[in-house]
Amino acid sequence: MTPVELSRTVLHAVRCAVDEGQLSVVVPERVVVSEPGAGGCGEYATNVALQLARAAGKPPRAVAEILRPRLIAADGIEDVVVTGPGFLNFRLDRRADPLQDLVREIRGQGRRYGHGDALAGQVLTLRVPYEVRAEVVADAVVRIVATQGGRATVEHRGGRATVQHHGGRAAVEHGELVDLRPVPAPEDPAPLGPDAARWALLHPAPHDRPRITADHLVQREGNPLFRVRYAHARVRSLGRGAARLGFAAEPGPLDASEADTAVTPACRAPALQASALHTPLSDYPRILTAAATHRAPDRLARHLVTVADAVLPFLTCVLPIGEEKPSAAHRARLALAEAAGTVLAGGLSLLGIDAPEHL
Q1: In degrees rounded to 5, what are phi and psi of residue 156?
Q2: What is the mean pLDDT of the chain?
Q3: How many structural domains compose the chain?
Q4: Does an H or E element contain 79, and which?
Q5: What global pTM score does this model have?
Q6: CA–CA separation, 256 vs 258, rounded Å?
Q7: Which residues contact 292 (CB under 8 A, 6 or more apart)?
Q8: Residue 225's closest CA among 79, 54, 37, 351?
Q9: Which residues pair with 309 in a beta bridge?
Q10: Can you tell me whether residue 64 is helix, strand or coil?
């Protein structure tokens, strides 16, 4: 069970308690699940009982005890312990593999992985100056806000010219006014080409001056855009290679059997390499929500670099090497690699940047 799935499970337990009359509260839009704090236990914890206690008119521990039986009964949860003033601590079913669950979730949702309803019903009017960086940032914000159920339109200072999209439709309407005033580009980024230009304007924080240099075009590891696009292209290349070898992706255990003597020593324990991917992939929905809430596409851009840097070392063990035969472990590794590729492609598309199949 992933943190996102666990958060949904907690929300479902709250809804059930409300529907059955045990709690009289407004069900929150989302629940934060994180690592247990001091005095906690298990893999994850939440303070939802403390958040609901005042509205429920009950002590936090009483709210937690109402939710606990419903949570214990959920698939993927082995035990729930109430600690401190009312923290719910989760011990997950050790027979389940959180990374496998995460891969299945990403494969099931595709590029919509990370989309949610945190901004459902909200309409934003982004006021921007006639300046290239502000225009590009606003365009990305419109896309990112839409992933969380919101809608954003753009209004230029000095005259209303609001034309932006949501769900493929033009929209012109008022909403919460948001001034987008990133530090302007020092020069015209057009010579970099559309993709590198957008990256140069979106990757820095809004208060940082963007660098409009040829460094963004260099195909070396020192270029973050290159690493992100290269990681995506490598994943797609591995998929084509697997097809030629006659196998496809399928979530499962990543380590090969000890009895498989054809496995090279370097790839004996790819699960150790893959563990570095779990947090960046599971954090993607949270990052996407934060980028939408704070109108900060730079957060998404930097997270894509984190995902790319985590997946690139793992890719060397995806396909069989030498005399190896394709196995269930290879199918599982390919599934994880493709999940990372899906996140990279989805994130790049939200920034308006192409995710190439070949590079």
Answers
A1: -85, 135
A2: 88
A3: 2
A4: strand 77-83
A5: 0.73
A6: 6
A7: 118, 119, 141, 144, 145, 147, 148, 150
A8: 351
A9: none
A10: helix
CATH of the domain at 37: 3.30.1360.70
Residue 106: name the closest of 353, 350, 343 by CA: 343
Whether the per-residue pLDDT at 43 is higher than 80: the answer is yes
Residue 148 · residue 115 · CB < 8 Å: yes
In the predicted structure, residue 202 carries a pLDDT above the cut 90: yes
Domain match, 270 and 166 both? yes
Residue span of the structural domain in which 314 resides? 97-359
Together in a domain, 125 and 36? no
pLDDT of residue 165: 39
Model confidence pLDDT, tens digit, residues 234-275: 999 999 999 999 999 999 888 754 334 444 444 544 556 677
Q: Is the pLDDT of residue 154 over 90?
A: yes
Which residue bears the tokens 């890719």? 315
Question: Which of 57, 92, 127 is the C-terminal boundary of a domain?
Answer: 92
Q: How far is the first Cα of the chain from the last one, in angstroms, to the nearest whole number?
A: 35
The two structure tokens encoding residue 323? 């005399």
Q: Encoding tokens for residue 306?
A: 């984190």
